């Protein structure tokens, strides 16, 4: 396909941004493109002007306020429906966050995954990113897992806990467009101060999204430890708690290695990252899938338009 338009660096950046969200069949508004852009030498007005140029040659398609790389109105209908559902389920997520914030050693709770991006489907899970007191990652994970199995009937739709870090290990080591996207879109629900620390420790995301705003914290729950939480933390704050944490870590490690024994060893280390300060449980290894599809998407666009992105 020959195009009668000079593809400036900014236009290429816009295409790359739309390509990433095209993986999820998710059209973007002009403001969202600006926030997710890898270029900070621009403005919203310039983005809107460049989008008009790209739509004039059918590289980008517009429907109302939304822009996408595919001329498919069903994506827009899907997005609007998913936005409404996410808004509804956000109320549930905040209630659950408020409850689990009372568990010992929980210092911060953030929503991740699709709900943090304001979109959900009927079968989507509500994903939680949990920050704990130092050296209590595995104890916290075990307690919340027991709570989910007994009181929530093991419902992932309401409560999917797949990432824990402690308050002394806030910098995410895997640095790519996927992890950067997940970090900037995290939605804090408990612990405004620890969210601020997390944000500062991962300022590297600005290399990927220099325009993305920090999340508002007005609705973030902050509370002092209650009597029961304080009592349990005093009892389990030293050697006894260390033993429980070691026990829980070994328990989960043995379980994962047995259940996912056919996993590639190097991929296992990333999908099930385990240390005293971090616990990740991503059996579907979504990160690998997204990065691979993004590369394929970019390659496909380059071949179709005969350009280099």
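^ structure tokens above, recovered residues below v
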């Amino acid at each position: 396909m020959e195009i009668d338009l000079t593809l400036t660096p900014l236009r290429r950046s816009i295409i790359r941004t739309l390509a990433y969200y095209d993986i999820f069949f998710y059209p973007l508004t002009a403001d969202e493109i600006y926030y997710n852009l890898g270029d900070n030498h621009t403005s919203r007005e310039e983005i809107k002007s460049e989008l008009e140029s790209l739509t004039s040659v059918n590289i980008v398609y517009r429907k109302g306020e939304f822009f996408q790389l595919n001329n498919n109105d069903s994506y827009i209908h899907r997005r609007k429906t998913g936005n409404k559902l996410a808004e509804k389920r956000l109320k549930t997520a905040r209630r659950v966050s408020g409850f689990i914030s009372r568990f010992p050693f929980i210092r911060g709770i953030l929503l991740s995954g699709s709900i943090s991006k304001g979109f959900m489907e009927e079968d989507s899970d509500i994903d939680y990113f949990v920050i704990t007191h130092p050296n209590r990652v595995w104890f916290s994970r075990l307690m919340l897992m027991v709570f989910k199995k007994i009181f929530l009937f093991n419902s992932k739709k309401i409560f999917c806990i797949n990432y824990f870090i402690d308050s002394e290990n806030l910098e995410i080591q895997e640095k790519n467009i996927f992890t950067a996207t997940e970090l900037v879109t995290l939605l804090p629900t408990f612990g405004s101060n620890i969210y601020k620390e997390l944000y500062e420790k991962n300022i590297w995301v600005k290399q990927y999204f220099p325009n993305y705003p920090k999340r508002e914290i007005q609705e973030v729950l902050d509370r002092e430890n209650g009597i029961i939480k304080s009592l349990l933390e005093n009892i389990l704050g030293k050697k006894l708690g260390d033993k429980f944490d070691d026990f829980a870590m070994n328990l989960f490690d043995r379980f994962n290695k047995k259940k996912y024994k056919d996993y590639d060893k190097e991929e296992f280390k990333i999908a099930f990252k385990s240390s005293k300060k971090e616990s990740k449980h991503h059996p579907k290894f979504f990160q690998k899938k997204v990065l691979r599809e993004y590369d394929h998407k970019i390659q496909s666009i380059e071949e179709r338009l005969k350009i280099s992105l």
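Strands lie at 61-63, 66-68, 106-112, 127-132, 160-166, 187-190, 274-275, 278-280.
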